[in-house]
Sequence to fold (1308 residues):
Amino acid sequence: MSEVIDVPQLSAAEPEHRGGVDPQTLTAVLDGRWAAVRQRSRAFELPRDEPPSYDLGTEEHRARVTARLHQFGASGMPQTAFPPSVGGRGDIGAGQITMEMLGYRDLSLMVKAGVQWGLFAGAITALGTEHHHRTYLRRAIDLDLMGCFAMTEVGHGSDVQSIETTATYDPQTQTFDIHSPTPTARKEYIGNAARDGELAVVFAQLHTGGRAHGVHALLVPIRTPDGRTAPGVTIGDCGRKAGLNGVDNGRLTFDHVRVPREALLDRYGQVAADGTYTSPVQSPTRRFFTMLGTLVRGRVSVSGAAQNATKHALTIAVRHALQRRQFTGPDDGEEVLLADYRAHQRRLLPALATTYALSFAQNELTSTMHDLLTGEGQPDPRAQRELESRAAGLKAVSTWHATATIQACREACGGAGYLAENTLPQLKADTDVFTTFEGDNTVLLQLVGKGLLTRYSAQFEGLDWRGMARFAAENAVGVAIERTVARSVFERLGSRGRREGGVRDRRWQLELLEDRERHLVETAAVRLRRGRADGRGPFAAFNDVQPHLLEAARAHVDRVLLEAFLAGIDGCTDPACAALLESVCDLHVLSRVEADRGWYLEHNRISAARAKEVTRAVDALCEELRPHLATLVDGFGIPDAWVEATIAQPVRPG
Amino acid sequence: MSEVIDVPQLSAAEPEHRGGVDPQTLTAVLDGRWAAVRQRSRAFELPRDEPPSYDLGTEEHRARVTARLHQFGASGMPQTAFPPSVGGRGDIGAGQITMEMLGYRDLSLMVKAGVQWGLFAGAITALGTEHHHRTYLRRAIDLDLMGCFAMTEVGHGSDVQSIETTATYDPQTQTFDIHSPTPTARKEYIGNAARDGELAVVFAQLHTGGRAHGVHALLVPIRTPDGRTAPGVTIGDCGRKAGLNGVDNGRLTFDHVRVPREALLDRYGQVAADGTYTSPVQSPTRRFFTMLGTLVRGRVSVSGAAQNATKHALTIAVRHALQRRQFTGPDDGEEVLLADYRAHQRRLLPALATTYALSFAQNELTSTMHDLLTGEGQPDPRAQRELESRAAGLKAVSTWHATATIQACREACGGAGYLAENTLPQLKADTDVFTTFEGDNTVLLQLVGKGLLTRYSAQFEGLDWRGMARFAAENAVGVAIERTVARSVFERLGSRGRREGGVRDRRWQLELLEDRERHLVETAAVRLRRGRADGRGPFAAFNDVQPHLLEAARAHVDRVLLEAFLAGIDGCTDPACAALLESVCDLHVLSRVEADRGWYLEHNRISAARAKEVTRAVDALCEELRPHLATLVDGFGIPDAWVEATIAQPVRPG
Fold:
């Protein structure tokens, strides 16, 4: 309570100033390659329906979001990503951006759009062939045919390879028998299933000629066009959820449902009329991961939507902090703005800085994906794997960042942050599932970690673990860090010539992060080998190293984020804006180093004095960036009309 | 995705075993002094209403919770805490426990009960006198008179001393004029205001005879007995919230509302008929904090309810982890339980251990409060301040722990954790506001930090800051750590004679935590003095040290938690149970040390080798406690019928 002011005497806030940076300049830098698409999205208005969504029951909310889906579809925007043959422009990057922009306004709509266009129509595009495209794709894109992406089951979510639903081919009738053999084979959390879906892309174990061929996708009608449940199908309702209640998640069970041979999405595996199985991809494992490759776009979308929801929350909390005063200062008797308290700055500013870092990394990822998927011929498998790993890592970090930051914003707004009229509750509840859907974050980071290890092991094939340990200990050889942005960006770092030797020296920061990643990967490999050698068995060997491996993956993403930030600054031509971004980048990277300083210290990467210097630098950067708070959130470029929170009407200091 | 199993090969889980500890023995230890009251609460059943609350709109939910409030009232349990003169037993501890137990089942009911019996009737009891007790108290207790506690305003929440509502005495009419002079004077987030409240305890600036006497509380009717809004009062509705939608939070504005002279709750300040003001407490500041002292019980309740919600969430997540298998192990082809993955253990087990620590600290706090408030005469002011500080610290740490742990549990249950049928969404949403209501956590920790400083400064009165800095640097004198449990507990530590010198050495742990607290308090004092001396002004001096001061407060609570845990173990007579609790205590304290190891390293409190030893010990403790997971959550003693989550039906391994 107010007693606290007795000892810590407070003074009034310093006057606002902007350091000459126009938020629109920042917006242009953040908007990046698809700036025009973002501008078009900003101009697209959804009606402000009454009552607000948070006052609707589940059924009313679902109906509203379905109606909004049609409004959004009518804008022509979601079609952009599809091939020209079905009315699109084949602009995958633009399609992604369009989806992600919904993250600012209506996350139920974003997810429902992602299910319909991204997963359902996306799977038909990627896994189907000419016949499927012709028969279903345009209807799906135009919302004449609503669909589901039925992969996850009660018993298997992350471990898709072990799903239990079967698709057994019968050459007599030339049909597949789709069946859920156990209660745990039930398809679960399936978007569009509870209310709207007519056709489902069902993932099932394919059997033909008495042999199993692994997971494949088939088109299975779950409702008749007039909305009745299809024979043999049981549809359940997942009911109320923490958030995203405008999305009708449901459950699907199949009791020997027959579908024609053409129902198989057969780009990567064909069944002839007589039941003969063929595939252009020989290895069943590679085939499986090729099919799962369709998920990468979903992960990129979720990452982007999580970032946009985070920006929305930060905009609310920062604007509130620039208006809300609490406790009288000792000098002039004025009450002090929340934004002037150091503890409040520490709550919001490092998170804001990391949000910038994530934005730049998201732009790079979108661009890389676009180029890879729209290039000629089949993408290079190595580049494809790298893209998947990058998407997995960024999705995990963006969504955890969203959960933590939106929570911090809620608390930073006190009781007001708990009221639905201030939007934060919905942002929090809607984004919460992002950390575990489209790939559980822990599983995704493990995938990243495994990729790092594989790259490492290949390099040292033939060395036994003792040799490996010696090499690692001597630091004589190491993991080759593959930088993710142009060499020229790094070359230009040298010419900055400022703050050399201090904690804001960019080369020092980069080397620190690279060294951490390298060391964590090397030692994870060593520990895995040693663990296997000590006879406790392979699970124990893995399990002991699991947290270490996840930390290596996280360190990798941290390094990629810093590189993306640097490339983003490098592309900024306005000197004042670039200077501001340099400070934001410092705050981002130094607050990460501060959080991990236990590791750096115990591995003798930094001295105790340097660790304290990092903490002081974070404080100093909070003070330095405090006058730019309004600029930094305005830079996100969220249209004022989209920020509906009562407490967050824009502050425009003179 | 499942690719991760390629490199890290997994083996099946080890068989369950319980190490001979009966969960009921644990429950008895955790239940503590008011075990019988807890047992009575466990026997009290609320009807399992259909549809479940999460399917109700706001108005239906409010109606249900009001009905449940009457059912709860009819049990006679909430009356326990009140004086015998109004039908109670004066058992404050029992009253607290009864309220907190609602945290397991219906947090809206818990909060509504807290508003009615704790805040509204509690304020009449504590701040009123004979007349008020006679006229209102029994009706309030029996729910014939529903009431509000109208303290917070739009403009002032934490800083109650600056609220703007006025109560101006008019000797002509012998009435007070209650008025909201500005828009920011509106009372905000007031429980019971939007729907049910008839009478409000209104906090306002008291004016009489042309002089201001600071904040006082008055009884102001806001509705007529037939439910119409009282003249001059405007009632608003806070509408939908993130959670707790069964509580009708509202807004109150007063337009020169007249109430009789007797409306003043006049225990600590009286206004005579002619307007003369008198008070038994001379200092206005002391008077203010004496009145706010009523808030301490609310904070203790919120802390307890947060802990109980945390236990509920952990029970769900742990039972799920003991049933859910994912990814096939390499040895026997069986799928591995989530509970066997180290990353999963690290998510749940340290949080579970800290929940035990918090429970023991909560028991101590409740007991201390009970003894202090039910003792003869006025409580000793120093003991009262100590109690308030302890309540503030524990409330902050318990509620942040709840937010983080319930979130971790939600994620640990994947998509299932997002479904309302699995309870975690409601636990998360309902407890979210706990970190900022009944005192914002940051403000509360600052209060704790200030208390530590004051105690410290008093010790060194007369030394200037240079002398202070020198003393602190030489570590020649230091903060006297006042241990919070009996000396005998510490004496018995010496006789354990086990694991000496290692990181599980209890004396080492205790000294480490004590040393951290002492150092942080001392250096905060030094920095504050130095900051004031350097001419940047008092606000800058405070602001630079604010995060440091909050860290000192947190270190203090950490030390208190460890002491409470040790006292709890000391009171356990079953050797196997005590041994299990010793390991849980180790995990709690070492995971805290691990989290703070950056600080310990940079202050040369531990070596790099020791820091790594701590991390290894946390891993080893996860492995050691893994077989006791079911026992540890069963030990919370939540009746099976209260754990409604579909995914969490009890596991009873043979």
Remarks:
- DSSP finds 20 helices and 13 strands in chain A.
